[in-house]
Amino acid sequence: MRTRKVPTRSRQTAWAMSLALIGGAACDTLPEDGSTEQGLATSSTAAELDPTTIPRFQTNFQRFYSYAPTRNGAGQNEYTVQINTFQTQQLPAGFPVTTLFGYGGNVLTDANGNPSADGTGQVAFRRTSPGPKFEQTKGVPALVHYRNQLTGSHPLAVDPTLDWANPNNFPKPLPPFAPFPPGYPQAQSPIAHTTHTHGIEVLPQFDGTPDTWFTAGGIRGPEFVSNDYTQPSSNQSAAFWYHDHAFGVTRLDVGMGLSGYSILRDPNNALDRLGNSDVLGLEDPYQWKRVTGVAPNISTTHTQGSFSVAVAAPGSTELQSDPFEVNQTLPASISLDVFIPTGGASGTIQMFADCVSKGQSRVSLAQVSLTGRTANAFNTLTFPIPRACGPPSAPRAPTSACG
Questions:
Q1: Quick one: pLDDT at residue 109?
Q2: Running DSSP on this structure, what letter comes out for residue 67?
Q3: Fold (CATH) for 36-269
Q4: N or C: which end of the chain has fewer CB within 10 A?
């Protein structure tokens, strides 16, 4: 399911949406983290896989965990981020696991261990690639402790003929050059690392420039000051990304998985309030939860939409959003792109709303028939919204139902 229209807002009202899907389209369950730690990096000689044998569109991209900071006595959000090797199921089930470098730390999870959708939940350690997401607030400084735990040899070929970090001060080799593997042991180990967050305002010593690299064993680059970074969170709110930036090996380390998102939100910016644009405009489909009905499964034909799934059998499935605020009358209609699998062009999709401030629940907003829709394709479904919907008081949440 993909959003088609983002409504505008003025006065605030709390709402929640839900979708009930009857025999047509439904929401998938998010995979739990299936990664395993591998502590020691080694050069790989694994057999190559024929890419034509790997089926496409088999696994949904899992949404990001968010780091769970602690607030220290200086008023900073404090994080400890560990960089290490791990294995995870990148390819479809039945294929070998993939060895990656990953950022890891304490994150927020829901009761099932999946990424929290609302910024609450349980704290657990996760290492992923891309790494967990920093969720920071403008004006609240951060202190990030980066810990390089990459030991052993780099799995990819380090090229010592370049200018690079060179922790062993290894002289550049001359031709004929050694093949990889094994390459040059003096270049393959130890593994240098530094992290740069692209775009944020920081002092130079905390910017992760290439020569601030450091190894797990304590060897440091010529510009190293500290691997404890202070960040003032002074930018305008925006999305940034963080990644390995070690001199001469950035391409290898980012290729092995060392990157992630960093989001800076401004509480004074209405667009940054979680639960307004994120849910009302349906821009974050992972805020939708399956609360009842048959278990859906992933469509093997199309998953290019942000929320493309199909029900496993005829029946009814309801999806419900988290509560969110509405600050003006809802638009005349809300349009969604819904993927209808083969045999699913029947039944209806219904949209409901709960409005706590008015003491209303499961108020029917609109119903759309699936009869005659194109199967095995995305269909744009438009739900007309009654003019009575929206402020003035404070409803809790629209509910949508897809069938």
A1: 94
A2: B
A3: Immunoglobulin-like (2.60.40)
A4: N
